[in-house]
Amino acid sequence: MPEKESDHDTGEPVISIRDLKKSFEGNLVLDGINIDIFKGENIAVLGRSGSGKSVLIKIISGLIKPDSGIVKVLGQEIDKIGRKELQALRTKIGFSFQSSALYDSMSVRENLAFPLTRNKRDLSNSEIQLAIESVLGGVGLSESIDKMPDELSGGQKKRIGIARMLIMKPEIMLYDEPTAGLDPMTSVDINNLIVRVQQQYNATSVIITHDLTCAKTTADKVTVIEEGKFLEPGSFDEIFSRDNEITRSFHDYNFINK
Prior knowledge:
The chain is of the alpha/beta class. The radius of gyration is 18 Å and the shape is globular. The model has no long low-confidence stretch (mean pLDDT 88).
């Protein structure tokens, strides 16, 4: 599997984080996170359960406020803008939830129409239907347009969740454990889809995962959260060639001890 190479480090960062700290009930989860992420770049964030990976992307999307530090997204400091500005910013951020978070009472068509009817009210019904058909074709599930979520496999639900994110044409895409709970072959399909999305949309993506195959396949850069801080980001091979107990244990768990 070829290593992805990053050639995106130009211009102003799309996401810029400086000395980010976040605690819950006295438990320090993020303790001085620093990173710049550039347009078109995929970065994978690895970490143990409870290390703060999901907290990080919730802060980036404005769902959680930081305790201190600076978090700039598309040039705006996320906790300093008003409610209307935050709502507008969120339309430029796609969030692919670990559970896919589809509405069980809605068909695939209705699930995909929902963000458009809520956020882009100037679109006609025919424009909405064309957008739905386009994103479904892009994730290879055109035939599922009128199915209900309980008729879909886990992998199909993940694809529909990604399609719902893509339909808003976001500039930033946040993936929370995109391969969690999937069999190896379906995981390969999801990884390849994430790469195709990057190539087609030139979006900036943050991929939260503990799956090293996902990180190696999808990411230009990889970093690890350990004790609330990032290890120095690098390519997959750079990260896992270092003599570091944390990255070595990740590698052995994924590739040796299974």
